[in-house]
Amino acid sequence: MTEYEPTAAARAAAARATALAGIARRRTLFASAWNGRALHVIADLLDIVALSLFEDAPTDTDGIPADARAALADAAETPGTGFPRQFGQYVTHALDARSLTTEATLGATGCDLGDEDARIAAALGTLHDHLAAAATEEVAQALLEAVFALHDKRADLAQLTRG
Residue 38 in contact with residue 60, Cβ under 8 Å? Predict the structure, then answer.
């Protein structure tokens, strides 16, 4: 039996999953008990993703092992955390280089909150471009910190618009 050796892209995706798990764990310090628990769940699932990317051979041509795919899907179903629904794209981007997307704006156009959301969405687009062109994985991980700070601001704005 041969042992699986992860590719450079799989190692990069695992590093990104680990970085996002760290972001989730740091956010638990400032979250409510309910949201803190959800953030711990996300962090644990991202740990599973990282381990799977290191230890399991991919089952498809996209380079994502089945356990990693399932854990990312489960993590995306954890609401109320300030993480965008499509945050798994930041992990899989290291494998497939698909364009990173930003969720639609809040819809509160014509007011200060809508304008602020549009500015944050534009900044996210710029950071996505930098992330796609990152020269090293260390740079990519630093950019992920900035991206998720902006996602947190967008989540706060969305909460304000809901009242």
Answer: no
Report pLDDT digits (tens) over 96-146: 989 999 887 655 544 577 788 899 999 999 999 999 999 999 999 999 999
- Cα separations in angstroms, 138 against 15, 86, 151: 9, 22, 20
Cβ–Cβ < 8 Å for 1, 57: no
Q: Determine which helix (DSSP H) or strand (DSSP E) holds 91, and give its type and residue range.
A: helix 89-96
Full DSSP string of 102-145: -PPP-S-TTSHHHHHHHHHHHHHHHHHHHHHT-SSHHHHHHHHH
CB 119 within 8 A of CB 96: no
Which residue, chain included where needed, has tokens 């008990």?
Answer: 33
What is the C-alpha to C-alpha distance for residues 17 and 88, in angstroms, rounded to an integer?
8
Output the pTM of the full model: 0.89
Quick one: DSSP state of residue 86? T
